[in-house]
Amino acid sequence: MATCLLAIDAGTGSGRAVLFDDTGRQLAVAQEEWTHIAEADAPGSMSFDCEANWALIGRCIRRVLAEAGLTADAVKAVSSTSMREGIVLYDEAGREVWACANVDGRAGAQVKALKAQGEDVERGYYRESGQTFALGALPRLLWVKERRPAIFEKVRRLSMINDWVAARLSGEIAVEPSNGGTSGLLSLSERVWSDDLIARSGIDRTWFPPVVEPGTVIGPVTAAAAESTGLRPGTPVVAGGGDAQLGTVGLGVVRPGGTAILGGTFWQQVINVPIGQVDETMRVRINPHAVAGLNQAECISFFVGLTMRWFRDVFCETEKRQAEADGIDAYELMERQAARVPPGSHGVLPVFSDAMDFGRWYHAAPSFLNLSIDPTRCSKATLFRALEENAAIVSAINLERVAAFSGVASDGPIVFAGGASKGRLWAQILADVTGRPLQIPVVREATALGCAAAAAVGAGLFASLEEAGSAFARFERTVEPDPSNAEVYADLRSRWSEAYAVQKDLVDRGITTSLWKAPGL
After folding, report:
1. Could you report the per-residue pLDDT of 187-243, keeping only the tens digit for each?
2. pTM reported for the whole predicted model
3. Most buried one in 3, 102, 384, 461, CB count within 10 A?
4. What is the 3-state secondary structure of 31-56?
5. What is the rounded distance in angstroms from the CA atom of residue 300 to the CA atom of residue 12?
6. Strand, coil or helix: what is 442?
7. What's the DSSP call for residue 484?
8. What is the 8-class DSSP label of residue 291?
9. 113 closest CA partner among 202, 47, 182, 205
10. Which domains does the chain have, with CATH numbers?
11. Coil, helix or strand at residue 221
């Protein structure tokens, strides 16, 4: 009988079940969108509906097995990954009493109150955990304490959402460090809960379950979980990890200095750095890698993919119709047109995404600067190329910020994955701006593959995640930088940086409105 590995991916917008064979080849996928709940008395809230979403995951598991033509006996092990920062709170019996998604923004007042205690307070949390208050669990826990005291009194355990999937499957609540680290209450250097930070937070230490490494078997699928999902009772349930960290495992970015740029709705620049290093400027986020012995410096470029979708849908209706008639993706047609625009986009400066500043994270108002009314110089194609150049410039700045504090600098290849890596022009621009070759993987959506690698380790197929990730990763091509464009892009980056600083000043003065601000600012 064929054997397979099951990855469960609890993403921001959907739940997925993905089957792989034991070589990392995808066999089938089943996916359903889910909706987070906005609570009427909690502005910015996005509650995670555990009951509805568990039923959705069960449907996806049953469907993916049917689509692959396999029975539950074929599943050698199952693991889980999820959006990061989302948390689940449980009562004494292990029942969920409260949960929120990563996009939950209800705790802005609590972030402000924590920041008001002084910069050294947040800096102390950051040095230990690599996290600031903006995305961490503590402000949300304080919100529950203040606004839902009856629920707070019931809480006896907490976990991240991927750990919740594993708990539903196995009946065991445990936390792994790659996503647990995004809570802001876990030690970067020790990969376990920080007793010091928990004591400072005032949260009961008994809430924090055991920490296990990704690839560790947590327990077997229970009879109840088997009834809900169609899985075989006794199937090993293996600790997985955060989506970005397991995504890099699926891309083979498992060794010191390994670098990836994940191009989706948000772009992430991820670099493997030694344990023990943080950025004293607090501009860069540091997370535990799913691979033991490594941390990851992570920078996030906001709304890159969303901005491209906005531009396509608002300005490119003609191109969308033409692409549909030609049987191609609209982005492919838009890239063909943009490829005829020279590097530098005739000097147009797009003010959209910005380089990351984790300690004081906000953006200018979205804008195009230095436009021309000459239609041969300023067209939809020009603006489209300028947006792609904006993303590449921000990525290059973020990579250099990591190199500045960590000493991890390389001219080696960058793995470029996610939906953006489908664009040949975008990949070339990114290579030219960073001056580094790009490796384009065969599997661009690598999070589920990294999750399958964790399941493979738990099943005994590999000795480590490093080994499994290296074995599963495959690349279809390499994009070399064009040195003739280096000077053009160096000048564009310099002018863009000055222009963006001025645009943020307009936000500071209340003249324009920020594209996005972190909670508490």
Report:
1. 999 999 999 999 999 999 999 999 999 999 999 999 999 999 999 999 999 999 999
2. 0.91
3. 384
4. EEECCCECCCCCCCCCECCHHHHHHH
5. 16
6. coil
7. G
8. S
9. 202
10. 4-247 (3.30.420.40), 301-441+482-508 (3.30.420.40)
11. coil
